[in-house]
Design brief:
By secondary structure, the protein is an alpha+beta fold. It contains two helices and five strands, in the order αβββββα. The protein is 45% helix and 31% strand. Strands 1-2-3 form a three-stranded antiparallel β-sheet, covered by helices on one side. This is UPF0325 protein PBPRA2971.
Length: 126
Amino acid sequence: MYPHLTSIGIEQPEAIERYSLRQEAANDILKVYFAKNKGELFAKSVKFKFPRQRKSVLVNSGSREYKEITEINRTLTHIIDELDIITKRKHTEVDIKKKILGDLRHLERVVSHKISEIEADLEKLK
């Protein structure tokens, strides 16, 4: 399902919680964090180093001046796409759970208030 993550040795992509990406010299450093298991103090993480691709870009066509630039490795782009799918899906699930819990708490308050109102009306009848 996640061929690029599998190709770099990640056997359980569903356990990924988040990731970070930074540039260091001529490399991009990808750090993948996994969900913390019960009893662990720190979450497990793995680090990958991807060399940036170098390109010569024409700056001035009149003088035929070129400038060397670097850009993200194509493989890393595919890996990030897969990581985004995994992490966004988890965030969506968490957001839905928060919404449901919020709705439930609101319903509890409404019902509690209504019960108090009915009890007050009953007291008036005595």
